[in-house]
Write a sequence for this structure.
């Protein structure tokens, strides 16, 4: 990802709007009695589009803002979301994204990972001697399934928003079209993200 | 060149992780620090506006969820909900808000809230996204007289207590949070115990450490005990309604000294709440 002040401002806006939407909307709506968690998907998509460093920094920022607004000990959510962003970025750097199903599937898997991570952090900070209901499993699975669909939409949206910064992204640079394609001239292969 | 890039990325990752652990160590158990209070103060007006703007959309989405739920349960309810679809979402939310306010006034008039408390009505503006802890943020804070430890109720009963305050917002830790046990008693037999939540299921709580000589029956009410000892006292005033006993097997009472309680308040769908400020317990 080519980071310019304009793109940086867009990333900050994405993080802030994402956290505010999560707290003000997604956390307060329920499908089958479970609220979707959009933040791991957001971090996964930023990691997929920007790479490990962008993913980890965005994960940290999202977690920090979330903890600040929820007035809980700082760093817990950041720790989990750094890992999520880094893993998504690592996936992009190691593998080609050949199928449109890859981003939503990654969102689904890494949301489950994140929710388990939040549980682990909570255990680390002391879950006292409270019992854990089996309904937690249903919540985690449903959140992951929601993340599949949300990931799809978020990936499509953020690719448009961050298009100027994406290397080799078709349409990234507005070049004048040649009058006529020369015969035998090969077009450059299209890559997603990169 | 590539190696240098990889090394730089790894260094940044290590820095972020160390930073997170450092923040966690510094802020754990401290309540809200200056940075959090500052951020919360800056964002609370934006959150409040966003909350109001998004309310119709939320109501619409929740309406669909409720419709799906109702379909599975009852055909008659399905027909009623089909009719309800024709109603304007804005009008529905206004009616729901009115009902909640009426209930809050009703709880006050019933005498459940002890005298000496000032009631500050607030609206839930954010909610924790994970299942592991149950916190909500409300749009009233220290500027409205809210202080840490103040009990929070809805028209149905107790929902939690204020665990952190900023200028225009407060964090409410719900009774469904694992860090928030409540000293409670059964009405009318007076058996006392500690009410603990079941993480992930706010509709099921366990009243533990019960006196086995007093047999508890299904359907009996559970209220706060509000005890006072030498220098220490319960977080909540006495006799605030909490819920009702839904499962009270004799074997469980005798062997484990516990019964299951369902809270009166719908902890998953909180909107308007009332903070009881001041009071004799300061």
């Amino acid at each position: 990802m080519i980071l310019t002040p304009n793109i940086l401002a867009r990333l900050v806006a994405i993080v802030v709007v994402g956290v505010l939407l999560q707290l003000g909307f997604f956390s307060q709506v329920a499908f089958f009695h479970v609220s979707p968690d959009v933040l791991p998907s957001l971090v996964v998509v930023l990691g997929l589009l920007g790479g490990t460093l962008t993913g980890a920094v965005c994960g940290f920022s999202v977690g920090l803002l979330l903890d600040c607004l929820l007035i809980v000990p700082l760093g817990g959510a950041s720790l989990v979301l750094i890992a999520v962003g880094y893993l998504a970025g690592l996936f992009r750097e190691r593998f080609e994204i050949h199928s449109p199903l890859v981003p939503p599937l990654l969102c689904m898997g890494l949301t489950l990972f994140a929710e388990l991570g939040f549980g682990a952090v909570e255990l680390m900070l002391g879950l006292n001697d409270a019992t854990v209901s089996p309904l937690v499993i249903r919540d985690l699975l449903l959140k992951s399934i929601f993340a599949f669909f949300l990931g799809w939409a978020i990936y499509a949206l953020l690719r448009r928003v961050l298009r100027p910064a994406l290397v080799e992204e078709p349409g990234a640079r507005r070049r004048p079209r040649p009058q006529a394609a020369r015969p035998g001239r090969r077009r450059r292969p299209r890559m997603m993200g990169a | 060149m590539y190696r240098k890039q990889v090394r730089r990325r790894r260094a940044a990752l290590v820095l972020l992780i160390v930073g997170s652990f450092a923040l966690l160590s510094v802020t754990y158990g401290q309540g809200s620090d200056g940075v959090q209070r500052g951020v919360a103060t800056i964002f609370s007006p934006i959150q409040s506006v966003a909350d109001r703007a998004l309310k119709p959309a939320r109501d619409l989405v929740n309406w669909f969820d409720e419709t799906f739920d109702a379909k599975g349960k009852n055909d008659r309810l399905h027909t009623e909900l089909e009719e309800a679809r024709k109603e304007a979402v804005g009008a529905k939310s206004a009616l729901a808000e009115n009902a909640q306010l009426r209930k809050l006034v009703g709880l006050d008039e019933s005498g459940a809230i002890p005298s000496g408390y000032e009631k500050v009505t607030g609206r839930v503006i954010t909610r924790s996204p994970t299942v592991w802890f149950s916190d909500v943020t409300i749009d009233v804070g220290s500027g409205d007289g809210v202080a840490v430890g103040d009990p929070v109720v809805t028209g149905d009963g107790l929902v939690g207590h204020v665990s952190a305050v900023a200028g225009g917002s407060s964090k409410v830790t719900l009774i469904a949070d694992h860090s928030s046990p409540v000293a409670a008693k059964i009405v009318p037999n007076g058996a006392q115990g500690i009410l603990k939540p079941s993480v992930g299921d706010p509709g099921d709580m366990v009243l533990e450490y019960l006196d086995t000589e007093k047999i508890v029956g299904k359907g009996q009410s559970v209220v706060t005990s509000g005890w006072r000892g030498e220098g220490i006292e319960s977080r909540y005033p006495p006799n605030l309604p909490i819920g009702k006993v839904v499962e009270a097997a004799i074997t469980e009472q005798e062997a484990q000294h516990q019964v299951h309680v369902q809270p009166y308040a719908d902890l998953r769908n909180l909107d308007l709440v009332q903070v009881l400020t001041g009071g004799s317990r300061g």
In short: Chain A is about 60% helix and 0% strand. The longest strand of chain A covers residues 131-132. The mean pLDDT of chain A is 84. Residues 5-165 of chain A form a domain with the Arp2/3 complex 21 kDa subunit ARPC3 fold (CATH 1.10.1760.20).
